[in-house]
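Lay summary

Proteins are chains of building blocks that fold into shapes. Our project writes down both the chain and a compact code for its shape. Here are two examples, one after the other.
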Amino acid sequence: MNHGPLMPRQLLAILNALEDGIFITDLKGRPLWVNQASLSQLDASAEHLYQSDVYRLEEEGVFSPSVTRFVIEERRPVSVVHRYRGKDYLVNGSLFHLGGDPSGEPDAVLVQARNLDRDVLASRSPDTTQALLDHVMHQLKRIRQEQVATEASPASSSRSPRYRRCLERLERAAASDTTVLLSGETGVGKSWLVNRLHQFSPRSDKPLIHVNCAAIPEALLEAELFGHESGAFTGAHRDGRVGYVALAEGGTLFLDEIGELPLTLQPKLLQLLQERQYHPLGGKPRKAEVRIVAATNADLAARVQDGSFRADLYYRLNIVPIEIPPLRERAEDIPGLANQLLARISRRHKRRITLERDALRALTHHSWPGNVRELENLLERLSVFCEDDTIGIDDLALDHPELVPASLADRVSLNSSRKSFCQTVGESDGQSDGALSLPLDDSRPLPERLAEIERQAIDDALSRAGSTRKAAQDLGVSQSWLMRRLKRHPPNSSD
């Protein structure tokens, strides 16, 4: 009997015979292959799945939530227990190499779903079933805590003593259930820090619910936050609505822009903090087991003084205050942060984009009024338009001239001119006509003389090549560099 390698058809037959659901997607969440067990678990047709993606399927309720999405966004393995359509599933998701170089970047997500009711809990009493489920949840929680403990702390990677103290304070506060108040300018990364706090907390296996108090209209905020019963007010949902507090049960409720909370709602939030109790609109009081984390870019102490924020609520929120320094006050972190953000952008764009040293130095000298968010948005924009996968000082000067100090811009321009000059003179060696030279009796400053040489070199290359792409190759520069130079000094019209 021949025991050679299995053929693809045989492998597919084996995967379809498994009782575990197998769901494979690309890194954009588009299904690539689904076995029969997974189709049965999801109660969906293969045609519908293949014409959709996990984000749309999550909106439709096919996934609640999508483990694939977690794996794509967090770039790490995820293990959870889901209850879906009355059944409990142990769902494991991970990145893997579907094709190409096994040592390169993963290109797909594999999710495996096992029916715990059938495989682990069959023929057992309800008490034993619950005990086994609690055991599984305990194991998953322990695994997650071990993963978090072994992850490199951002405090150790920061070079700013002030920011390290901020992160160390946050990670120590995470171990308790104490209310935390984060303050700092817009864009300093408050949401990221709350995610970090939740990961290090004993509630890491429970929900983290983010509520932006400034983004919800005042008339709807109470119903969104605390929920409402059927018919509680005109226009209320027929079946009522579960509020964010209830959704965060057992986990963390993050109230961003807490300074924008209306005065009428502040006593109700105070009741939640002090008594662990709240009132849905039109309903009876309910208990809540949630941890509150709040954040603001406003001066809450000043708002207490002017009467727009309750003093008792402020003191109740301000048990563990953590002030996040703006980016301009931790400039030593900008190089590492920029490279970290660019690595994330590179994975999303599926290209390896790098920063030249001079460009990185220019970023370090900027004041960044928009903080980390401004830096990330700039890098995202530059990564879209850089053609040679390298962001240089010219890219910065073209997009944001104010980011490039005058002394650095002059030096880079001079270096570029010298490079073009040397390349052009090298190409002209041995030619009797068209050779470029630097007249010794020219009284102009050297940068102006080199700029003239550069302009002539570009004109000559364009006239010979007939296209910017070929001209850039002849000059030994990128096409994007050449296009920027043409904007700076167009070809002579007299030629």
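And here is the second example, written the same way.
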Amino acid sequence: MRVVRLASEIDFVGWREAARSLRGQGVAPDTVIWTVDGEGDLFADPEPLAPPSPGGFTVSREFLELAEAVILHRSAERFSLLYRMLWRLAAEPNLLRIATDPDVVRANDFARQVSRAAHKMKAFVRFRTVGTDPEAYAAWFEPAHRVTESVAPFFAKRFANMIWSILTPDVCIHWNGAQLAVTPGADPADAPGEDALEDYWRTYYASIFNPARLKVDAMTKEMPKRYWRNLPEARLIPDLIAAAEGRMNLMVAQAPSQPNRVVRQMARTARDATFDALAPQSLEAVAAGVDACRRCPLYKEATQGVPGGGPAQARLMVVGEQPGDQEDLAGRTFVGPAGQMLDKALAEAGVPRGETYVTNAVKHFKHELRGKRRIHQTPNPSEVTACRWWLDAERRLIRPRVVVTLGATAALSVFGKAAPIGKNRGVALQLPDQSQGVVTYHPSYLLRVPDAASKAKAYALFVADLRFAWDLAS
């Protein structure tokens, strides 16, 4: 018997060299034992491999690609199966074309299982925050087969701007932003714990769950239960399945909604019409058009367009810069930390929030990715100019008496030119439509002021500006 020890469980190069040597020497498959360092018969000494005899042979690229995949399978017979097929190819060059051959069926089945395992890994790895200086992420995953190293380039390309590690029982892969590294496998105890972002992910998953399209067998086939323990959303699945029938019956019982012709028409106009197309005639049309707007590239990376909100005849309009991360997800203006600061200041200034129309100069969220976080970027003048068409439509429909601009971007959009806050706050500025403009800070600026005394002073000025604007509008 010949004993061949390979360097690792996925040592394709070692298997190929050994198989070539053995086949060249005419060593039959049933006389070869394939094992990995540290495994197999401890009393069997591996014989050194002799070079193949003269008159070598070649195999197709198709067989080599099949072998590369099969070796990643966890079956202990994979090495011997492949060598047996290699041996047979000399007398049966069309072996891979015989779809009913037991060895071919077995090898193709192994390759399909490996391919599925790679697909599942790409779909079900969930990174969690493990460091903030620098920002770093880690994920624990247990692949069905040894595909970790083969899919590592996918993750390096997909998450190129993150520092991350994927821990598995087989090996761990690490990306430092420039190159990949491989280290020995980890223990489940090393798996990272939950982080703050997982609640957002679960909220999103629940919101997109459609009970009318639920097929439990198909879902569990695509998302096998063996992966659930690594998925933050998995804890929601049993309850979502249990409530699906009731939710579906409720949907069926509801009267069918009529198509909203205004929304459909405005969406087509915003998408297909010329830049100076006819202006929308209702706030409903503005909302539909904003979501379908293609006047600048910002729509490409945003979740949705975010129109303004408030009463249609508001005396006071408040204009911010752009939606933030939370506004982009919710589809409503000022729902994040800056919105909470604005609500607090409006209340202290005596301004009824329900009588105020709140919108933004730019309707899509401009950002850059840093790890999992989407970091705000200031819109440039061309983006502000492109989106001013929508703000002008809101102003024309609402006809507010006073427009409050929060920050420099909003002031540029409303006044058409820079209006420095320090120079212009506390003053009523005449606008061409006879409304009054008031310049003040953006609430996000107040959140960033590091010094407590300076923050308190800026906040007091902010409240005073809002009170001044409301008095003008009353």
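What can we say about the second shape? The chain is about 45% helix and 15% strand.
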